Structure formats: C-alpha cells, structure tokens
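Ticket #4471: structure output looks truncated?

Reporter: J.K.
Steps to reproduce: submitted the chain below (236 residues) through the standard prediction queue, then opened the result file.
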Amino acid sequence: MAAPPSKTIKNLSGKWVMNKTLSDDVDPILKMQGVGWFLRNAIRLSTVTLDVSQYEEDAESSSGPSTADPTPTPTASAPTPQEQIPVTGSTPSTTAAKVTHIDINQTLSGGVSGTTEKRTLDWTFRSHTDRIFGECRGRSRWASIEDLKDEDGWLRQGWLNEDGGVRVQAFVESVGGGWTAMQVWGFEELQGKRYYARHVVVRNKEDWKQARLVYDWQEPAALDDEEWEEIPSAGI
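Returned output as attached by the reporter:
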C-alpha cells in the first residue's frame, strides 16, 4: 500500500515491502556488483522486506574508533569529488548533540539470506562485511537537492518536496570489487499515490546502471485477544 502521511524521511520506522511492479529490474545492477546468476535469480523471485528502525543518538556514542574509518583503505578506490562533498545546511543529523541512525534488516522469502544496513547519517566512512556484496565501506548523510551533483540528474529528479527538502544520501564502495553505489532515499508520487523510494546509481569503471526501487508500506498486524493478554499490565 502507499505510504501513510505519518511516514516521512524523518520517520521510516516500520516494515516496507518492495513493489516489483513499480520498481525497475535490479538484475543489471546486481550483475555489475558481482552477484552470481543463481543468487540474482533467487532475489528476483523473492519478496524483499525492509524492517526499519530510525532513531537519534548522542554524536559522541556514534563515532567510536572501532567503527569509524575516515581514510580510504589501500584496496578501495578513493572517493570521487562527488563523494567528498562536506556536510552542509541545517539538517536533522548535523546538530552537535544528536546523530540520526537508520538500521535496516532486509529479509527475502524462500530462505535466501538477506542483508543488514546500518546507516549513521554523519558522512563518516564505516566498514561492513555483507553476506551478498562482500567487504564494503560506506557513509550516509542528510542532503538537499543542491547537494546532489550526479551527471544526469537521476538522483535529484522526481522527489516530493517534503520535510524541508532533505533526503537521505548513501554511498557505498566495494573493497576490491571495483564498484561504487550511490543512493538517494525519499518519497515520490507514482500513479497518483505516495511511495517510499530509492534512486540508485552503480558504477564499475566506465560502465554504470541506474534503478528506482519502490516500497509498499506494510501495516503492523493487529494483535488478537490472546496476544493482548500476554502483554504485561501497566498497573493502571
């Protein structure tokens, strides 16, 4: 179903299911990222669900030396000028006290192992080993349309002007795989309805692919009488 008004780029918490009718084919992107045919086909046939938890945390507890990696590793390509843009503007994650986190558990039907995304919106590089994409490093931030400088405008176009015009920008590069991926998240109107979407550009040397990923909001299941009885009383 379309996204309810309560779901915004500042409140993505909940479950989202990929709408494969409205989404572009991701097979060319996955192939560019080195995913084999068998796994690509399994992903194509699976239902993809995102379980999102979005919250704020003190900045000091978000930037410990065990996870932050501000310098390129020897085997990773250095960021292009597009990725070196400093964090600018008055956005939710640029305050001195708080940083926004978006933790996503991605599951696939049919027994296919999914992935975990842990986005800290402070534009600091962090390393991560992914079950599908291998060893990667990436960073994320809040960004305005003016901050997005892709060549063909794909990352900038189509968005609804909500929440002061800010969106989530996420950059990932493979360590040793040769590819990079830039994503922008926001909300779009498609077929007269409002949806959560991602615009993705993946590059590998001189080649590149782009795709739009669209997600349906999944309403939480209502509790039945037995489940309500298992919830402890608040004592009032």
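Triage note (M.O.): checked the attachment and the full token line is present. The two ends are 36 Å apart (CA to CA).
Status: closed, working as intended.
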